[in-house]
């Protein structure tokens, strides 16, 4: 049995919850709603954190999860604080009607709201409704709104790069910065230097985008765990982790995600066949960064041109004169013929022209079939 103390203004209630009770959030809201004024909004806080506000949260998922965790914690007694406040609405709508209005805001209405010069914090929920539809309008709002944590956190959760236009105070707020980098890892660039030096923040950023490692403190670029997370996200982290450019495990993980990161591997690993093969299998253009020996390796070059026929341009002169390889390349993309040897360009040009003509014929046939299909559909509609 879990006891939850509920403080509503000066009123004090105790409700008893167990895991056997379903829809705990509905039970709680049904109890609170009659206690607040018809034209007021209420926020439910626990340990200083907002867990529910009807005008901010679209559903009760977060509240339900919080209550579930309460019932499963080792603590038997918890306190929830209910903060009641008035919301400003010049049409004097009830809370439910006002919520419906905010949920139906459209793009042009949001543009008009953001452009208003008379907005104050009395319009906070109107602004929140607008931000949920069009978060980029945060940049048009005044400093007071861009320093409001509730508003800013909603905006950066939808578009992390909006961290760029929030107050300096909130660029140094861990909750806000975490929300931003979880959406767009590179938003770490806009965070305060203090935030860029927090492990949890950097970890969240590189988990979303390995390239975010660029904006972290140098110590993180030498942290093997952070670097592994970064390269496993999209490979880009290797570019900013020179300490690990000779670590085969890390380099291999990077090139499997982003082949051209082979450029940032050590010379030794550029000579490693497993690493190079993984790189060109991901990106044919990675062949340019491989050791010269692999540009004469038929298996490696074949893997590269299968990924991207234009990789033929990085092959050795001997392989540019290999008819089998060149045919594979031009069958995928006839423009790759320009990278073959002069002898093969001359020999295979008639074949390339045949391929091009077949493609044109196939395209015309497909267009004709589509036109006939559309015509038949129109006839069928007319007959009905």
TrEMBL record:
Regions of compositional bias (Polar residues) in chain numbering: 365-384
Full protein name: DUF4116 domain-containing protein
Region described as Disordered: 359-384
Domain DUF4116: residue ranges: 155-196, 200-241, 247-295, 297-344
């Amino acid at each position: 049995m879990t006891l939850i103390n509920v403080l509503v203004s000066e009123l004090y209630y105790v409700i008893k919850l167990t895991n056997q009770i379903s829809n705990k959030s509905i039970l709680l809201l049904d109890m609170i709603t009659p206690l607040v004024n018809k034209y007021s909004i209420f926020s439910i806080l626990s340990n200083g954190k907002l867990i529910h506000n009807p005008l901010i949260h679209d559903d009760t998922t977060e509240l339900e999860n919080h209550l579930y965790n309460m019932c499963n914690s080792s603590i038997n007694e918890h306190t929830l604080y209910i903060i009641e406040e008035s919301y400003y609405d010049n049409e004097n709508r009830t809370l439910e009607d006002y919520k419906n209005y905010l949920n139906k805001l459209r793009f042009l209405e949001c543009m008009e709201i953001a452009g208003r010069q008379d907005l104050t914090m009395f319009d906070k929920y109107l602004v929140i409704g607008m931000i949920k539809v069009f978060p980029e309008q945060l940049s048009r709002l005044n400093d007071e709104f861009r320093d409001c944590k509730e508003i800013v956190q909603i905006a950066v959760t939808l578009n992390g790069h909006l961290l760029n236009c929030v107050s300096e105070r909130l660029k140094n707020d861990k909750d806000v910065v975490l929300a931003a980098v979880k959406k767009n890892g590179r938003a770490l660039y806009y965070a305060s230097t203090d935030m860029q030096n927090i492990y949890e923040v950097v970890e969240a950023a590189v988990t979303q985008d390995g390239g975010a490692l660029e904006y972290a403190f140098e110590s993180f670029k030498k942290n093997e765990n952070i670097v592994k997370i970064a390269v496993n996200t999209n490979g880009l982290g290797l570019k900013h982790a020179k300490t690990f450019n000779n670590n085969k495990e890390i380099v291999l993980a990077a090139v499997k995600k982003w082949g051209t990161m082979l450029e940032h591997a050590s010379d030794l690993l550029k000579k490693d066949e497993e690493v190079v093969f993984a790189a060109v299998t991901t990106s044919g253009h990675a062949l340019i960064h491989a050791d010269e020996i692999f540009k004469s390796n038929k298996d490696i070059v074949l893997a590269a041109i299968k990924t991207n026929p234009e990789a033929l341009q990085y092959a050795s002169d001997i392989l540019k004169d290999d008819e089998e390889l060149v045919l594979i390349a031009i069958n995928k993309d006839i423009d790759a013929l320009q990278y073959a040897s002069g002898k093969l360009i001359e020999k295979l040009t008639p074949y390339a022209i045949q391929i091009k003509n077949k493609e044109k014929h196939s395209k015309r046939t497909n267009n004709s079939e589509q036109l006939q299909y559309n015509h038949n559909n129109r006839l069928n509609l007319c007959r009905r």
